[in-house]
Amino acid sequence: MTSKPNFDRNIFRYRSINSLLGERAELENQSIYFAPAESLNDPMEGLRRVVWRGDRVTWRNLLRNYVICLENRITQALLHRDDETLDANAISVFQTLDNVPTPQMRDFLKQCIQSVEQTELHTTLLDFLAGAERDISFTELKQHLRLVHFHWLQIIQKAVSDQGFMKARNSLEFDEASMAANLRAMQNLLPKLAADHGESVLEAVFEVQEMVSASIGLHTAFNNSETASHKKQSLIFDFPSEYLRCLLKLIYPPWYVACFSKRHDNVAMWSYYANEHNGCCLIFRTLGDPDQQTLRLRGARGFQASRGEQSRVFREGQDLELRSVNYTSEHPQLEFFSNLGRISQKDAMDGWFTDDDGKVSPLSSHLTDPTATEKWRGEHWDRFLPPLLSKHPDWRHEEERRVVLHDNLGILDKPEDRTFTYDFDTLEGIIFGMNVKMSNQVKTLQIIEPKLVNRSSDRPFKIYQARYNSRTGKMDCFELDLTTGAPTLPSC
After folding, report:
1. 36 - beta bridge partners?
2. 213 membership: H or E segment, kind and range
3. Beta strands 474-479 and 255-261: pairing type?
4. Strands 427-432 and 462-469: what pairing?
5. Range with the lowest mean pLDDT among 26-35, 116-125, 188-197?
């Protein structure tokens, strides 16, 4: 047993044996996978309190976008089996009337929009939203869309069936006048509630409404489960909330993370991330200053095309910054219409800030003045990263460091494109969990041994064994000396 290890310049990555030695073969391939946000263990990661504060032009265009996406969703449903659930991330929020593939499709979408906009419920909802003159929260907007969703779904389904793309359905009775009256009553009531009790009471009102809607929705789905297929339930009950979550894609690009820790001695992390202490902890050597550490990884960097060939993603080594995670339960607020950062200026102006008569919304001022645009763009991207480095305080024990990638170019869509590799010189050692089977330790050494031949680092590669220290209440480790002679085992 040697002296206590010195890990001052190291960062740690907990892995299960299956990840290291199984199908993904992370140790053999020297690979690090960057996970999408939806697969992380804290659903609050990257969370922003997005609000909507628009005028009649922007709200009308949002409702049109909803109709376009709903029509596309109905088409998707026609291509799926009844027992399939529709992909929550496949809602076409980037679709506009200007980028549909055919003139016939554009005319049909215009017809769907016109049919919805002629209804009393649409006019009432548009009046309500445009006249609010306050921030509309995610929760509130979701409730408004749920209110109109089934009515608009029936209108669009009828339009699709009239085109012969689906069988005609018997429309359920819908008291549109009553729903519109309720919206107008709410429009009159909410300002009085805000004046008497403050605007925070409005969010509480819609949170209660969401609870009631969730109960009614579940009750309805359960009672109709024999006749309502999975895809039908997706279309009827899930679409409004899934649409809003997808709509946020118009603000920032998708992002991916590889997670590390400053700690190798936390019992809970060994249990959670290393499969009940049956996994390992990889020890990486960092570069750069202590306050700005980096990790050298090789992965997708951009597009490259040779003459006459199709563009392809090229990979190269990159010094990627390891950023500290901030543990907080607070989340920044972001206004939607003024932060459409993932679409071109032309698409934003044509699709969101201009009406049919060519009237331009004054909310587009950050795009019409070049000086204001440059300032807005800088501030917009300054706000991108901080929420991606936040987790709930309950995770503080992890002392996490992470590498964050964002994908403006569309080069990280596939899991294989998000799998980066490290030079073996970067890996300084490995700690076996206290429950790792001997056979898996041997397999690990068999992978490592030939890699050491080409290792150029002057720092020795070390193997450690984790153990629980009852005096400190933490995990510690001791170095395994593999230079001593080993006896030959008898045959069994």
Report:
1. 256
2. helix 200-223
3. unpaired
4. parallel
5. 188-197
